[in-house]
Design goal:
This protein is α+β, with helices and mostly antiparallel strands. It has 6 helices and 12 strands. Helix 3 packs parallel to helix 4. The chain starts with a helix and ends in a 5-residue tail after the last strand.
Length: 238
C-alpha cells in the first residue's frame, strides 16, 4: 500500500511540474547545466609540426591544425618573411617534444577556432603544458590574450623569469619579432612610463603597458588625467 502511495504521489508531482502548477508554498529549483570554459583534456596523436606554435594533430581519427593558445614563437614559415631569430630553434623544439611524447592531450579554453580555421588549445605532452615549456626556454612570448584563460598567470610567471635571464628570444627581442613595435596584443610592454598610462574606452583601470588585460586599441594619456577621469590602477601591472 505504501509503495502504491509513493508511486501515485510521484506521478502527481511530475504532472504538476509539467503543467507548471505547484502547490502554494512549494519552491522549485531547476537544475541548470553550465558548460565550463575549459574543456576536459582529449587524447591526440602527433601528425606534423608546422612551426614553434602550430602543429597538426589527430583527434578521434581526424587531423586538425592546432594553434597553441596564448603563445607566439618567431616566424619560420610565413610567406615572404625570412626566418626570424630563434624561429628554427623553437620549431625544432616543438617538433621534438611532440614526436617523442608518449601521451599528447589537447584542452580547449574559450573559442575553439581562430579566424583561419585553426583549432585553439592548450597542448599537453606527458602531463606537462607545452606552452609553458616553450616560454620557460625563451622560445615563445605570451601573446594573443583575448580573455581570462586558465593558465595565463603560469605563463606570465615563466615569461618574467626567462626575460630576466635573457633566454632565447629575450637575447634579441626585436630580431625575434621585427613587427613587435606595431603590435598591441602582447604581454611585452611597448613602452612604460611613470607619467603616461594606457586606458580603454570600456575599462575602468589604467595600465602601464598596452598588452595588459587584452585591451583593444588602448589610448595613451597622462596618468594624472586618467586619475581625474576616475580610472584606478590595474593590480596586474602596478
Amino acid at each position: 500500500m505504501n509503495k502504491l502511495r509513493k508511486v501515485t504521489l510521484s506521478f502527481i508531482l511530475s504532472l504538476l511540474l509539467i503543467t507548471g502548477v505547484m502547490p502554494a508554498g512549494t519552491t522549485y529549483s531547476p537544475v541548470v547545466s553550465v558548460e565550463a570554459a575549459v574543456s576536459k583534456k582529449q587524447t591526440a596523436k602527433f601528425v606534423k609540426a608546422v612551426d614553434g606554435d602550430t602543429a597538426k594533430l589527430s583527434v578521434k581519427g581526424r587531423t586538425y591544425t592546432f594553434r597553441f593558445l596564448a603563445v607566439d614563437t618567431p616566424e619560420t614559415v610565413k610567406p615572404n618573411t625570412p626566418v626570424a631569430f630563434m624561429g628554427k630553434r623553437a620549431s625544432d623544439y616543438t617538433k621534438s617534444e611532440l614526436k617523442k611524447a608518449k601521451k599528447i592531450q589537447i584542452q580547449y579554453d574559450g573559442n575553439k577556432t581562430d579566424k583561419y580555421g585553426r583549432k585553439l588549445a592548450w597542448i599537453w605532452v606527458d602531463g606537462k603544458l607545452l606552452q609553458d615549456k616553450l616560454v620557460k626556454k625563451g622560445y615563445a612570448r605570451v601573446y594573443y590574450i583575448y580573455g581570462k584563460y586558465r593558465y595565463t598567470d603560469i605563463l606570465k610567471t615563466s615569461e618574467r623569469k626567462a626575460k630576466k635571464k635573457k633566454l632565447g628570444i629575450w637575447k634579441n627581442y626585436s630580431a625575434a619579432f621585427p613587427d613587435s613595435s606595431s603590435s598591441k596584443n602582447t604581454t611585452t610592454p611597448t613602452k612604460k612610463s611613470n607619467n603616461y598610462v594606457w586606458v580603454s574606452r570600456s575599462g575602468s583601470k589604467y595600465h602601464s603597458y598596452t598588452g595588459c588585460s587584452g585591451m583593444k586599441n588602448p589610448s595613451k594619456i597622462k596618468k594624472a588625467d586618467a586619475v581625474s577621469k576616475g580610472y584606478t590602477a590595474c593590480k596586474k601591472c602596478y
